[in-house]
Amino acid sequence: MQLAEGRLTAFGVLCLIVAANSSTVAATVEYLSPPGQPFLPLSLSPDGSSAHLILNDGSSDDYFWSEGHGLKAIPIPTDPRYASIGVRDVSADGSSFVGRARSGSTFVALRWTTGGEISELAGLRGGKTDSILPRAISANGAVIVGDSDYTNNDREAVTWSNSDGSLTRLGHLGISPLYREISGPRAVSSDGSVIVGYSSRSDGWTRAFRWSSGKGMAEMPPSELTTHFSDASGVSPNGRYAVGYGSTLQNVPQAVIWDMTAETVLGLGMLPSSSFSVPSHLVAYPEGSRAFAASDDGQIAVGVSAVFARINSFGDGKSYERTFIWTPSSGIKTPMEFLVDYLGLNLHGATISEVYDLSADGKTLLASGLNAGGMATAMLVHLPIPEPSSIALACFGLVPLAAIRRRR
Q: The CATH number of the domain where 106 resides is what?
């Protein structure tokens, strides 16, 4: 193929490579942890340059990985007032942390920084209670989200300003004297302006909510997929898309993605039973799926799908879970099905077992699996190209474009 002035563009070269042999296109696999050590990835910064991990060896020590600095233990305050401090989340630059600690006979919510500053987060009942739970901090470190009890039975989603600790109540979707009042956040956008989670309504049912500083709390766009229950587990860094799951009275929960600008809902499906390592003498029944992260354009999401396997429909059994990757063109697939079978990528001998998060542009995946030597490790998978369907469409357009240019 020859383009104008006898030059072949870089994208044209990529088209030829993919057309000839897609398996020659290599992903960049970046290992985050020492091989063989049981590090569990938790979250990835929007730009893919840092990650929060936990050492899953019984110690539950938290670590922060960043480009140029590698993997380092998260600093835990040594204040004598606090014991058993646990990290819940970390800002994208690794400078601010939120968590819980034991103080005397109860627990407190804490925020602290790498500079040594530490302070308690107040709840809706003032003082120390076991039920103040910080859950996440925005990527820019400005907003902390969590929930607090305000009676023995009722809880409410709240935010704290990381600069001064001031508290803001987010409310509920509805209140009734007949039912408990419960709301809780699951995730926050990069700048802290959009929060998603779950809340009770006045009819007693629980639905996914979205909250923004300008509009307050509102229920997610309705759908036939969420008539019985819904919960938002994650939000895209820019705050446009939310992901989670919903169910009807007749069906098991299914992963969904909400476009909060277009007011639409899309079901992502569930992995087939063949995707799970279920013993042959057991029968696998769908148990549901849930999405927990999405890119800024909503074109790629990750989550978890499960089946319940047992000898017959009434016997005892066991749940089996697998994480998935979803795009509009590929549908729902296991990590290796998506990366190797669908995209045709060369992973340099690595095996991707699970995916936990992704960058805002959807091109970096936070994952775990085996390196080329068969050792367990946490890793980043950098995707080098758009999806095959996108490349095919673009490549298809190169031929008439070349012809037009030759006629000039």
A: 2.120.10.30
One-letter amino acid identity for 276? F
Asked if residue 123 belongs to a domain, the reply is yes
Q: In what order do the strands lie in the sheet with 39-44?
A: 39-44, 50-55, 61-66, 70-73
Q: Residue 235 and residue 297: Cα distance in Å, rounded?
A: 11
Structural domain contains residue 29: no
Direct distance between the N- and C-terminal alpha carbons of the chain, in angstroms, rounded to an integer: 17
Reported as a single tens digit per residue, the pLDDT across 231-255 is 999 999 999 999 999 998 888 999 9
Domain count of the chain?
1
Q: Which residues pair with 195 in a beta bridge?
A: 188, 211
Q: Is residue 278 part of a domain?
A: no
**List of long-range contacts for 361-367, beta carbons under 8 Å, 24+ apart:** 361/48, 361/295, 361/296, 362/295, 362/296, 362/297, 362/299, 362/300, 363/48, 364/44, 364/48, 365/302, 365/325, 365/335, 366/41, 366/43, 366/44, 366/51, 367/41, 367/335
Name the residue among 188, 235, 237 with its Cα closest to residue 88: 188
The answer to whether the Cα torsion of 138, 144, 150, 153 is positive or negative is positive
For 164-211, write each residue's pLDDT tens digit: 999 999 999 999 989 999 999 999 999 999 999 999 999 999 999 999
Backbone angles phi, psi at 255, to 5 degrees: -65, 140
Q: Output the CA angle 45-51-57, nearest 5 degrees.
A: 150
- Residue 86 in any domain: the answer is yes
Q: Which residues contact 377 (CB under 8 A, 6 or more apart)?
A: 31, 32, 33, 34, 35, 36, 37, 39, 368, 369, 370, 371
Q: Which domain holds residue 182?
A: 75-219
Q: By C-alpha distance, which of 364, 286, 310 is closest to 43?
A: 364
